[in-house]
Amino acid sequence: MTEAAAPVLADANVRQMLSPFGLDVEYTRAEGNALHYTDEEGREHRVVDFACGFGSLMLGHNNSEIAERAKEILDAKVPVHTQLAQHSHTNDLARALNEIIARELHTDEPYYALFGNSGAEAVEIAIKHAEFDRLQRARELLDGVEDNIATARDAVSGGGAQVSPEAYDLAGVAGGAGLEDLVAEVRRRNEAAAATPPLFLTIEGSFHGKLASSIQLTYNEMFRLPFKSLSAQARFVPADQPDALAKIVSDERVAVLDLVVEDGLVRVVERDFPVFGAFFLEPIRGEAGIRPLSEEFARTIQQVCAELGCPVVSDEIQCGTGRSGAFFAASHIGLRGDYIILAKSLAGGIAKTGVVLVREGRYRNDFELIHSSTFGKDSFSSLIALKVIEMLEADGGAAYRAAEERGAKLKTMLEAVRADFPDVVKDVRGRGLMLGLEFHDQSEAASEIIREQTQHGYIGFAVAGYLLRNHGIRTFTTASALHTFRFEPSIYLGDEDIAQLETALRAVCGVLRRQDEKGFAVV
Ligand code: PMP
């Protein structure tokens, strides 16, 4: 069959969607911060990649040191898949990550590692672990209530106590009905409370993956709503609004009833049932439009969760592994998650891995017996991740300093563009090599083309296509904030790449300022 006649059986719809914007190019070579494609006339074009795997290429495309290490591992015939055996490479990786946790997050509490294949899979593992832990906490609570019922029965039957009149009121049982009726009602209510499904908390705009459970923690409704019935739900808290968080917690709180014997009286007290599964947050929300979490709100979340006994899960899949200028973006805001998740850049853009690190105080080691995956924790990806860590940590963390320095230079340029086009550029945000530039909304634009492209939600693709075809720049908007373009290059970003982006962005701003009728149509 000729190429032209070959049916497109993978991603045909996406390809069709990209085509009108000139984004359906096939990249044939990638190195460092650049991608290359060949046009219809056979000319090769270099593209500066500011999307960089949506955060997975902190060390660039096909990093030669990592590629060399990959070849070495394969040539050495290191066993890759050996389930149910010892995995010293994986353990070395967990230890290396623990050393960085100790240094950056200032704790000597160990974190135990659970491995998966991708970001979303690691999030699913965290969800499962949190649920496993929640049910055990619930069981401990309800067992405690049973112990207290037995104590109350002994006290009443031995004549040492009687049921207090308020106890009947609190349980909604007729006054004087007797201890057994009270116990029956307490158990009935507690059984109903225990059937409450877990509720997860996260922040508006968050992105935590697209698998069956993780998608319910992802804000974008187009992705989330079709699958609502598949899994536990999340409440999305507006960022930096402690009062809104307090209201959500108080609205969703579920209490069970317990009995206590005090001063010869059996009383009824309420106890919090562990309904909150976990609070998932990103120290820098990527798909929400590159929005760093404030130190203050991080502190509030930690306090509220500590009070609820609910674990805080720090999703560093996109912002972690050095991109922020430190290995953990949470280290900039004094946030120490009970769970920490890494993926994307951890495997150097060559292998695939995802890891959930759970601090000892919250870790349920029985979980290891009930969760596994064929490709989780293979030696190849573990050794590649170890190589990535070695490269990041080399020369006293030169790579983190490079992320900070390159990021600062890039941000200075973005801010200069904003200063010259305040009518077009609304904001520049982010940290290190995770930056965003937000355009003002164009849904009321004077240009019909620009207005319509905005109203139909594809102005982002139109601008991305224009940047690619006219300026050799690759970037996209974030998934839940469609006016914000992402800039997440590798540490190998050159000054000339920044200059190329500046020219391109100034051209885009010019089109928007002039409301050029041609808009961003690819001709
Ligand atoms: N969490 C965050 C913060 C992410 O940015 C992403 C990917 N954009 C994911 C989870 C999901 O990771 P993956 O695409 O590897 O499933």
UniProtKB/TrEMBL annotation:
SUPFAM superfamilies per record: PLP-dependent transferases
Pfam families in alphabetical order: Aminotran_3
Keywords annotated in UniProt: Aminotransferase, Pyridoxal phosphate, Transferase
Cofactor: pyridoxal 5'-phosphate
GO terms, molecular function: transaminase activity
Similarity-based family: Belongs to the class-III pyridoxal-phosphate-dependent aminotransferase family.
Protein name: Aminotransferase class III-fold pyridoxal phosphate-dependent enzyme
